[in-house]
Amino acid sequence: MASLPTLLCLCVAAAHLAGARGTTTEEPTVTAWGLEGSSLRPGQPSPALEDWEEASEWTSWFNVDHPGGDGDFESLAAIRFYYGPARVCPRPLALEARTTDWALPSAVGERVHLNPTRGFWCLNREQPRGRSCSNYHVRFRCPLEATWGAWGPWGPCSGSCGPGRRLRRRRCSSPAGDACPGRPLEAQKCVRPQCPGCGPNTCGCPDHILLGSVVTPSGRPLPGARVSLRDWPGVVATSDAQGTFQMPGVCASSRANVSAQMDGFSAGVAQAQANSSLSAVVTVVLDKLEKPYLVKHPESRVREVGQNVTFCCKASGTPMPKKYSWFHNGTLLDRRTHRYGAHLELHGLHPDQAGTYHCKAWNDAGAVRSGTARLTVLAPGQPACNPQPREHFIKLPDECTQPGGSPAYLDVGLCPDTLCPSPAGSGPRCGDTGSRCCSVRRLESRKIHCSGSLLPVKIVAECGCQKCLPPRGLIRGRVVAADSREPLRFAQILLGREPIGFTSYQGDFTIEVPPSTQRLVITFVDPRGQFVDTVRVLPFDPRGAGVYHEVKAMRKKAPVILDASQSNTISLGELEDEDPLGELVIPPGAFRRADGEPYSGPVEARVTFVDPRDLTSAAAAPSDLRFVDSDGELAPLRTYGMFSVDLRAAGSGEQLQTGPVAVRVAASQIRMAGHVEALKLWSLNPDTGLWEEESGFQRERSAAPRVRREERVFLVGNVEIRERRLFNLDVPERRRCFVKVRAYANDKFTPNEQVEGVVVTLVNLEPAPGYSANPRSWGRFDSAVTGPNGACLPAFCDADRPDAYTALVTATLGYRRTDHDDPSFKRNGFRINLAKPRSGDAAEANGPVYPWRSLRECQEAPVTASHFRFSRVEADKYEYNVVPFREGAPASWTGDLLSWWPNPQEFRACFLKVKIQGPQEYMVRSHNAGGSHPRTQGQLYGLRDARSVRDPERPSTSAACVEFKCSGMLFDQRQVDRTLVTIMPQGSCRRVAVNGLLQDYLTRHPPSPPADDLSAFSMLAPLDPLGHNYGVYTVTDQSPRLAKEIAIGRCFDGSSDGFSREMKADAGTAVTFQCREPPAGRPSLFQRLLESPSTALGDIRREMGEVARAQARASGPLRTRRGRAQQ
Question: Whole-angstrom Cα distance, residue 322 to residue 341?
Fold first, then answer.
């Protein structure tokens, strides 16, 4: 009893500490104390997505900290830093934490703290004596996106006379209380009766004066702006070189509305303010005109007759676009009939309204066209999803071959990846209330007779419309220097102008593609200033499959010191044995500070030029060389070079600007007919990744030195180096085609083994020697991601000269050409001539090159049509899932206890590194079955085969990175299963070593696997994400393909954060086997097990007995000598 007051004091202190922490946040901190009897039961399942209301959803699981020191800390700030701010919403609603063994804190008796706005933490000092915090991972509950309601009616026109405006409002519908993106108000111009002229109240003060200035949003003065009074027609004043102007006679107290206009800028209006009894001041801000660009495209929809549909389109630009037009099957829809704006609402649909829809948006700078959406209108009784599955063949394991020895295939069925109508259509909103698609409704189990065994498989028996998760495009990759391949560490990542995260120490990044995105523009900014800002348009798979990119950053040139008072010339192009393509000429006195003040000190100039005559520079070139033409469509450019300009004050590093400078291009370098007249100077808009025209070029003749006795011809253009620093010498090109490319899993090129998610790049090369064009130079490049029917790549082509244009086509992620072994060709690319197909020629109508207007024919071409193809290098690997799943199509996931991937929102890939000591490369098999779950114990999940890869530095040594099914929760989220994994090389091999840390971990985490033999290695797979020290490599991602690619790269490298395609057999291995070649004519152990299991096992026991007796004989004399010594 004497200790009771002390215990009470401690309890009061702990309660006070927890309460104090809760008061420092917007939401209270929940403290869970397992020993007090929480309402949560051990192993209680998390609420499934379908069990919650539509207003919110769970994120994936995060684990950024491991217990050690003071405890385990999973702070929301750290999660956003490492995973990117887009992975967790700004204001989470709830937080759930589980140990890596998937146990709740109440089940392990630990005190933890949870706060949705701060995160999770567990302190070792708060745990019972002798305990420390477990390793936890967390997930957050986030509200779904808020949506706007319909616009209300327009209000009355403002003002009593002249031009005015009227407003309308809309309400934000947000179940979670979040703000909707966009504005609740919309303004429209309107006109009242004309106002009288400049009256005495405004202009009747001869002793008064109005002083004003015209500037940009950054404060740069704008000379030459035309200034007028809002109620007084005609130009009253013009701004001078400093952007200032004066208006005598304007009354100081009149609060006159002053407007300013200037070419290339939107009109601006501001109201004068009196600063004394005789004068007033005003500052008019003008925004630079920017062509509109689409931030939201209309999306395809499926509806039934009589339902409603809404298509949405949203554009941005300067000024903000207000005019929209909608087209159905290419025909303009009547604005008065449909009363559309940015949204097109169709009520009571009938069949003839099916087809394609797109929008166009206008502002003062031009127009832009959206992507095309398809509307499918189903007749009454017409099913959106055929219940009969389509044909889909999978390859069976090698032991299930057909009688002739050829591989066996099985039709497991496939549900088409198509949309279904929502139950009640949609109201006046952009997104459907619930996504429904055609997916698996029922599976059937089968048994396949193979050599010596029965192989279980589940096939699709019925398809139907069901709720499906919306696809999430995912981009992962790495940013490296183009010259040295060093990683670009901690570079800021911008999506448009919005920062979304940083690259890691190794230059890695992960980006979740925003919904309704068709063109992903990302900028990487080097914090050290050593690299040019890298603007990339990254292709992605809109169906949700992940894509990996390696981005190459261009290093800035060494600075040169310029004298601001002198004329300076900087060459463009420094290739050996080649003349410069042109030069940049900066006149004296051209440098300005950001506020427009002249700068006369020394200048550090870095001008970095991308020379297309260097074929390797295409990989580091920014953007994708597109612009918006007069019709609002994206059109390609052919480049003659790009240059980045960085001007700074010497010593201080202050960024400088310039007035007009001359860009001179040698006409002798422009050899293609018509390009001299069409060459223009462009600047890159980093927000859109599109090039915008700055100026044209004119001929200028300048006398060359007399010793050469010739005259050089230059093309001269002018540009001001202001906010934009990246420029391009380009020609719009109209001769365009599409090239059909497919990727296959192996060199058998089976149609059902096409691989999705492969990034294929086409680099347009200049016409072949013999034509009037630049030899050995590239003109543009395009990339695309292969889908279920390949990819169509844009390219330049010529109808008159078949070999006028050529192209280099390459593929990533270890793909190669058909003639890979020919040493005279690039191993992962091929070069082709691009001849435009002739109309009416049947032999050229089916690919592989299609006319520009035949994009749909290219996209929907059957596999029997002509195409170019790649096959995967890693042909010696095999994957078999009992529940079929296409990793390139996440929508094909089926919920089943035997699914290899139990969670469709996050995919965890696990690999084991197996070292082989033997004279050749060996196939290694991973057999994965249920281990601890009562409903799956002993049942097969799948098989994985991988061939070992030789270590280039160690003869007779190779290693294999073998995938196994990760342990964890099954799809019902009710109980964990520790997968029983058996690793067996397919040869005469014996296990000789096991990683000590892995063996110790398995010993400390029972149960132990069944008794194994020396020809294999068995384990109950760990629940924890062990690292390279254990020989286990685990990566979690929203894309199964990306998770596997990254894990394989780490496994090859033998590290937890590296990446390599060169096998390092001695680094980070889990188990080692020693293999030997069997005597001639004797089958391997693996083959003997398949053909006669009992005989093979008897041979193994006999050989093991012989080895044990030999070891006993060898160790007997040693034990005898030791016994005598002890006596």
Answer: 8
The reported pLDDT for the residue numbered 941 is 95
pLDDT of residue 1115: 45
Query: For the segment 1022-1061, what is each residue's pLDDT rounded down to a tens digit?
Result: 988 888 999 999 988 878 888 888 899 899 999 888 888 7
Per the prediction, the chain carries an average pLDDT of 80
Same domain, 721 and 747: no
Reply yes or no on whether the pLDDT at 585 is more than 50. Answer: yes
Residue 5 phi, psi (nearest 5): -60, -40
Residue 18 and residue 136 in one domain: yes
At residue 405 the predicted structure's pLDDT band, cuts being 50, 70 and 90, is low
- Run of H or E residues at 866: none
Are residues 931 and 997 located together in one domain of the fold?
yes
What 3-state DSSP class applies to 24?
coil
Residue 353 counted as domain residue = yes
In sequence order, what DSSP letters do the residues of 253-282 get, joined into one string?
Answer: TS--EEEEE-TTB--EEEE-EESSSSEEEE
- Among 552, 581, 609, where does a domain finish? 552
Measured torsion, CA atoms of residues 146, 149, 151, 152, in degrees rounded to the nearest 10: -130
Q: Are both 784 and 801 inside the same structural domain?
A: yes
Residue 1034 token pair: 């685990």
Count of other CB atoms within 10 angstroms of residue 798: 17
- The predicted model gives 837-849 an average pLDDT of 70
- CA-to-CA distance for 766 and 771, rounded, in angstroms? 10
Residues 326 and 374 both lie in one domain? yes
- Cα 895 to chain centroid distance, Å, stands at 26
Which of residues 872, 889, 906 is at a domain's end? 872
828 and 953, same domain (yes or no): no
How many independent structural domains does the chain possess?
9
Query: Which residue, 647, 575, 562, is CA-closest to 614?
Result: 575
Domain limits for position 219: 202-285
pLDDT over threshold 60, residue 1113: no
| 847 lies in some domain | yes
Q: Using an 8 Å Cβ cutoff, are 214 and 225 in contact?
A: yes
Q: What is the pLDDT of residue 647?
A: 92
The CATH number that applies at residue 796 is 2.60.40
| Bridge partners, residue 327, by sequence | 332, 358
**Residue 268: CATH number of its domain:** 2.60.40.10
Exposed (0-12), middle (13-18) or buried (19+): which is 895, by Cβ within 10 Å?
A: middle
pLDDT at 812 over 80: no
The owner of tokens 């384990």 is: 1019
905 domain-assigned:
yes
Question: Is beta strand 736-744 parallel, antiparallel or unpaired with respect to 868-872?
Answer: parallel
Cα distance between residue 244 and residue 222, in whole Å: 8
Q: Which of 480, 485, 470, 472 is nearest to 511 (CA)?
A: 472
Tens digit of each residue's pLDDT (9 = 90 or more) over 491-504: 999 988 888 889 98
Its pTM surpasses 0.85: no
Is residue 1005 over pLDDT 70? yes
Which of 196-200, 571-575, 611-615 is predicted with the least confidence, judged by mean pLDDT? 196-200
Report how far Cα 437 is from the mean position of its chain's Cα atoms: 24
- Two tokens, residue 1126: 């002890």
The values of phi and psi at residue 91, to 5°, are -130, 90
Two tokens, residue 420: 């279904």
The pLDDT > 90 percentage for the chain reads 23
Give the Cα separation of 359 and 343 in Å (integer): 9
Q: Residue 1120: enclosing H or E segment and its boundaries?
A: helix 1093-1126
* In a shared domain, residues 726 and 585: yes
Cβ neighbours of residue 217 closer than 8 Å, sequence gap 6 or more: 285, 287
- What's the whole-number mean pLDDT along residues 254-283? 89
Count of CB atoms situated within 10 Å of the CB of 181: 13
CA atoms within 13 A on the CB side of 534: 27
Same domain membership, residue 841 and residue 793? yes
* 49-53, 69-73, 536-540, 619-623: least confident range: 49-53
